[in-house]
Design a protein that fits this description.
Elements: H1 14-24, E1 33-38, E2 42-47, E3 51-56, H2 62-76, E4 88-90, E5 100-104, E6 109-110, H3 120-131, H4 153-166, E7 172-174, H5 176-188, E8 196-198, E9 207-210, E10 213-217, E11 224-226, H6 228-235, H7 244-251, H8 256-276, H9 279-291, E12 295-297
Helix pairs in contact: 3-7, 4-5, 4-8, 5-8, 6-8, 8-9
Length: 298
């Protein structure tokens, strides 16, 4: 999996998108290009009222974008929650070097910008339970959920060092040993569930919020087989401590080992969002770390 420091993110002008869309999906040619939403590794551009395109800005993701539409189609058809899942795959061209996808558009804010309210926890739990269905042995591996926690240890340590140096808000201190203990406990926990289909990027910018109500999920490129604990841990960044009981009531019972792995993924995600240095993500990250008892008064 490439990291954000591997290369400079590609700039993708509107003219390039227009040429690709008009050539490969002429039924969208009369749809106006709308706002663009840029993340570290990809961007999304609205096409008319009902569709958008998602395109990688970094090398290393081409195989994921090339496969995801076909992989996700049999599963997403039965989901009861809103999902901006890939529905068509675009080919390289007009100076753009990789595959890209067309997605349905969800008109809402992200949970990073408009946090979910407590009643949304049950809907989020129900959505994950629909996603986390058993994956067959030949299912493509999710590059984030299918490699195990230990694969992320070096990156975890680098991000922990950054977070300690960055400093916690309001004259608090991050307990590095406490954070590391949570992560290592997760690494030591048995993976006691068979691989399921997983999302792999349930960060606050992938969860949609309509004035606090759950409005759907975005960013499906990683979809594949893996450990459901990763999704549970990452979605925990948008669920306050008081929301987790309702989340699990809708999601279903999980083992103690799965909880340990999910908490390890939660602290990993929090450190990632501190490093990204987005004020909305940082706020949520520090809130979760405070709830876990690893941020103390200085």
């Amino acid at each position: 999996m490439p990291t954000y420091a591997d290369s400079d993110p590609l700039y993708i002008p509107d003219e390039m998108v227009r040429a690709l869309v008009d050539e490969q999906f002429p039924w969208l040619a009369d749809r106006e290009l709308g706002r663009r939403y840029k993340l570290e590794d990809h961007f999304t551009l609205r096409i008319g009222d009902d569709y958008g395109v998602q395109m990688s800005r970094l090398p290393g993701y081409d195989d994921l974008f090339a496969r995801v539409t076909d992989v996700i189609a049999p599963h997403s058809a039965g989901w009861s929650f809103p999902a901006s899942q890939p529905i068509h795959t675009g080919r390289p061209g007009h100076g753009y070097p990789w595959h890209w996808v067309v997605v349905p558009w969800i008109s809402a804010s992200t949970a990073a910008f408009v946090p979910l309210h407590a009643p949304a926890a049950r809907e989020v739990g129900a959505a994950l339970s629909e996603i986390h269905q058993p994956a067959p042995a030949d299912a493509p591996v999710n590059p984030r959920t299918g490699v195990g926690l230990a694969a992320w240890r070096r990156e975890f340590e680098d991000m922990l060092t950054f977070a300690v140096a960055h400093g916690a808000p309001e004259n608090r201190e991050l307990d590095a040993d406490g954070v590391r203990a949570i992560f290592e406990r997760g690494c030591a926990a048995a993976v006691d569930v068979a691989p399921t289909w997983t999302h792999g990027r349930l960060e606050p910018r992938a969860v949609m919020s309509d004035q606090g109500a759950f409005a759907g999920l975005l960013l499906w490129a990683n979809f594949g087989a893996g450990d459901p604990a990763q999704d549970i841990g990452f979605i925990g960044t948008v669920l306050g401590e008081e929301m987790r009981e309702d989340f699990f009531a809708a999601y279903g019972e999980v083992s103690g080992a799965t909880v340990d792995r999910a908490l390890a993924y939660l602290v990993y995600a929090a450190l990632r969002y501190i490093e990204v240095d987005d004020p909305f993500l940082m706020r949520m990250a520090w809130e979760r770390l405070i709830e876990l008892g690893v941020v103390h008064e200085a």
